[in-house]
Amino acid sequence: MNAKWSEIKVGDRASFEVAITPELVAKFVDISGDDNRLHLDDSFARQKGFARRIVHGLLLASLFSKIVGKFFFGDENLYLAQTITFRKPVFVGDIVKVEGLVKNKIESVRILHIETTVNTPDGEVALSGEAQVTYKE
């Protein structure tokens, strides 16, 4: 999309899918330092009640940046805030759908409120939240 301010309307949507590979998780571990065994060891994750190892919630939340940066404004935006609620686990190897929906557009201060979600392969919401983004021309 990468639209200009005047082109964006309440109700506009953007989405993409991404495979959560072991390599992606390993990169996140390197960057974040979060080497919790729930994310790295299938056997340990099963002992804790999960089908297999789970993906870091903040790795998934970081994907919202692509929705904001690539689909809404590109280089013309500044991310102001993001709320996150973790609802369901995502497992290493899953393909998730990341979505953004423009809920509100405040003309006077050029701020968008974007509903953000990450959905599991079966369509359930794993993460939800709201981004606040400003347009800088």
UniProtKB/TrEMBL annotation:
Gene3D superfamilies: Hotdog Thioesterase
GO MF terms, alphabetically ordered: (3R)-hydroxyacyl-[acyl-carrier-protein] dehydratase activity
InterPro entries in the cross-refs: HotDog_dom_sf, MaoC-like_dom, UPF0336/Enoyl-CoA_hydratase
A biological process from GO: fatty acid biosynthetic process
Segments forming domain MaoC-like: 16-118
Pfam families from the UniProt entry: MaoC_dehydratas
Domain of life: Bacteria
Protein name: MaoC-like domain-containing protein
Species of origin: Candidatus Komeilibacteria bacterium RIFCSPLOWO2_02_FULL_48_11
Lineage of the species this protein comes from: Bacteria, Candidatus Komeiliibacteriota
